[in-house]
Amino acid sequence: MVNAADKALTDATIRQYEDWKYACQQMRTEDMVKFVNVPDCEEGYPLFKSELPPGEQLVQHAIHPPPKPKPETRVTLAFGNFMYSKLVRLLKDKDIVVRQKSVTWAVELLSVPSSRVRCLAAGFLPILAKMVVEKDMFIRQELALCFKYASASDTTWDDLCTLGCINFLVDMVADSNIILRGNALSALNDAALSDEVRKELVSNGKTLTFILKCINKEPDRTCMILEFDLLSKCVAGLNYDQMALTELLKVNAVPTALEISSFTFLDLKEAAVRFLCLLCFDVVGKEQAVKLNAVDIMIPYLYHTEPRIQAFGVAALMSITINIDAKHAMFNSKVPTPSAKKILIAQGVPVLLPMLDLNDDLLCLYILQLLINTAEHPKARAALKGGITILRDMIKVCASALLKRCSRQAIQQLQFTSRPFKNLALVR
């Protein structure tokens, strides 16, 4: 027989269990996406219903079955969900060792898309922005990685500018530590996918000049490539940024790109030639490139065995040869071919027609544009007359509407008979 004391204890236990069960049901709703970060509170994000294994419920009945191991995924989720609020406080700890471990932990969490959203919602970014005053090199290196992974979320782009993280990363580029420079440049490259970040970099009129000066004295090849890529992103923008072009062309960006393009490393050569192509979108850039004999330097790229180097070399020539003097240079240029016979001399024009290969649509498009630009020169048109048959055959078999249109435009240009350029006004 159950006495009154035991019955009262049982009733209290059941009531406590029912209250706990109701609270758990209320917490596990899809609408619960944030938590209140109260000091000294270990609450984190609860597991969503979608995160629970199928058929797995925390509460079944009052008498629990014997303990059994939980799946690894379930343990990992529970561990991570209850650590966000704690990590927010540990990042502000007075102990430098704790801060080092915490910022490393933050890098790991921000690098995973599933936990990045929770980290940002927990308020990581403002706290990381306040840590820019840290003097410890390891923390600074990890901070740059935090900003890199945080910029993978487009919701952080405005915050990165508002909190001053972009300026902090630019300051890191001037540091003597190679790892820190590499992390900062990698973070800036990822963030520069945003219009807001590119505007922040271009608007003050000094940052791009600073990055270009860093290229000229950069000893590390990887950092140099990242610097070229960052400048290319700022110049290109959604179309191309005239403010960025104007700033760079005033500080000898074209000579720098031409000098670096002569290096033997293919990835560095690719970055430099891509940057040169973008600089030559501007009239001033074309004029500077022609004066520096850029056409003579780029023509050997037509023979390069690496397809991507060949494509960027053709793209640079395509951009430069809009200039009238460049058309003359394209026809008159004489550089040695990369063959065993050093006495052979190659010109730019005869190489174009054999390169019209539909197996590479992008390269074929660049060659067509280069051919159209070059064919404005009378002597070049005479040398390329035989290409009309090739272009007509391309129109028949090509599946790309863009390539067909460019082929028709090239045929029209090759059949042009009036006097071009300065004498055109005298033609009646």
Automatic annotation (TrEMBL):
<dbReference type="InterPro" id="IPR011989">
    <property type="entry name" value="ARM-like"/>
</dbReference>
<protein>
    <recommendedName>
        <fullName>ARM repeat superfamily protein</fullName>
    </recommendedName>
</protein>
<dbReference type="InterPro" id="IPR016024">
    <property type="entry name" value="ARM-type_fold"/>
</dbReference>
<dbReference type="InterPro" id="IPR042856">
    <property type="entry name" value="RSP14"/>
</dbReference>
